[in-house]
Structure to design on (119 residues):
């Protein structure tokens, strides 16, 4: 999933916690890259909890849950997506083709070119 502001793709993190942040925008889970966190007031763009105003929301299985207070609500989505959906960054790829398959193929070819373990 790319950064919702700039479209940068998340890469495998070094050891430890990921510097990327999760949030919910227009009842959709989004990620924010470290650069956008530093350059923009990214938290102002995200949805807030109706109970405690926290931005620590996660969207899963049709519900939005606040990780701070535990308040949950049903995620509301139109068939075509909410009006705010137009602000989300799109990859520019045709529907169903996110470019991920090419990235996976390249990673597999790098890994499979290595010799057997211990040689």
């Amino acid at each position: 999933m790319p950064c919702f502001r700039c479209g940068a793709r998340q890469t495998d993190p070094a050891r430890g916690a990921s510097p990327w942040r999760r949030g919910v925008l227009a009842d959709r889970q989004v990620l924010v890259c470290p650069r956008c966190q530093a350059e923009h007031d990214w938290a102002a763009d995200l949805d807030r909890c109706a109970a405690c105003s926290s931005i620590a929301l996660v969207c899963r299985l049709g519900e939005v849950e606040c990780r701070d207070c535990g308040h949950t609500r049903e995620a509301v989505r139109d068939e075509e997506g909410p009006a705010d959906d137009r602000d989300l960054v799109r990859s520019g790829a045709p529907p169903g083709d996110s470019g991920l398959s090419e990235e996976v193929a390249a990673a597999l070819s790098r890994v499979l070119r290595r010799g057997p373990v211990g040689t």
Summary: The first strand starts at residue 21 and ends at 25. The beta strands are 21-25, 28-32, 57-60, 63-66, 72-74. Residues 100-112 form the longest helix (13 residues). DSSP finds two helices and five strands in the chain.
